[in-house]
Design a protein that fits this description.
Layout lengths: L4 E2 L5 E9 L2 H9 L3 E5 L5 E7 H8 L4 E6 L6
Length: 75
Amino acid sequence: MPDSDTGDSGEDIVEVNVGFDGDEGRKSAVENSAEVVREFGSLDVVTVRIPQSVWTELENHPEIRYVEENGQTGS
């Protein structure tokens, strides 16, 4: 799990891409997020901001293929 910024609540929040299979995987990613950043209509991927404490829970979900930190491009 990568390091991240600390939000006002004191809990570490990280922006991640979550690849999922099925409605339950998508639902879990969205419901466990602090914020939905982006949903891709043609891909089974969402970009969300999650507490780091949720990362492992999402990775272990049977309908989630991957959880990876969202990379930043440009400046």
